[in-house]
Design goal:
Blueprint lengths: L14 H11 L5 H15 L6 H25 L1 H6 L15 H22 L2 H22 L6 H5 L6 H10 L4 H24 L1 H6 L5 H5 L1 H18 L12 H23 L4 H26 L1 H25 L1
Helix pairs in contact: 2-3, 2-8, 2-14, 3-5, 3-6, 3-8, 5-6, 6-8, 8-9, 9-12, 9-14, 12-13, 13-14
Protein name: Protoheme IX farnesyltransferase
Pfam family, one: UbiA
Pathway: Porphyrin-containing compound metabolism; heme O biosynthesis; heme O from protoheme: step 1/1
Length: 327
Amino acid sequence: MTTTGTCIPRRNENIRQVLQSYVQLTKPRIIPLLLITTAAAMWIASEGSVEPLLLAVTLLGGTLAAASAQTLNCIYDRDIDYDMQRTRKRPIPSGRVQPQHALIFAIALGVVSFVLLAVWANLLSALLAMAGIAIYMLVYTHWLKRNSPQNIVIGGAAGAIPPLVGWAAVTGDLGWMPWLLFAIIFVWTPPHFWSLALMIRDDYAAVNVPMLPVVAGEKETARQIWLYTLIVVPMTALPIVPWGPLGATYAAIAGVLGALFLQKASQLKQAPSDKQLARSLFKFSILYMMLLCTGMVVDSLPVTHQVTVAIVQGLQQLAQSLALSFG
């Protein structure tokens, strides 16, 4: 990794601007999506009754772990961040935060995250959160990002770890269901990220980062997005009974979202050069995962089960009445 263009004199700032710079290092817009996948796993694991303190601690620990990983990423990628127009104003390449100070900040975030989860949740959840940081930095950022067009496919495992953390925080172990949630997010990540990569293909090409649109072109990227979407949508049906713990409410939400996801991926496949379609798919992919996880939470609530049972019983009674009437 080079350090070209990173030796910019630090600007004079007030305390508020300094705090804003450190917050920007953590890429805060990314974190809410990670947290909602954590929360969904916790609600399912607890059958809709999450202990408030455990929820708060786990989400805070997850936030700090993600913030640590993103800060480390900013340190490592400061050279290409300076060369890309989109990222040149980030705190490190712009000179507002020095790399050594950012490193101390990242380490502190990681340590606090580990301690919080290990003390107030359990050791397994803490170790999983640290594994997420390690995979993001070593596997994705260091090994794959600048060397392979499959970088986001394999490196996407880091973004799929939060539901494992959430499940482990509640149960202290990992069964098949959290790994299914892991797999769903893992397969969802390429369509999500490659649609963004299609929008900023020229930026990646300028700094020789071999994202799929740069290496294989827009048509092949759109085809890969379509294929991954074809896989992930059916996968979202696996948590539904009789195989999984979720029921009709989640099934309805997942069905509608899946149909829309497939529609948007198909449109992009037909017009892979259309950046507006890529932008639309990227934005929808975020909404898709957030609403899918919300559906999991709502379906896991005891009141949802009670309402579902009441509706089913009412329909059964109606059917019996109709059968007697026409009998």
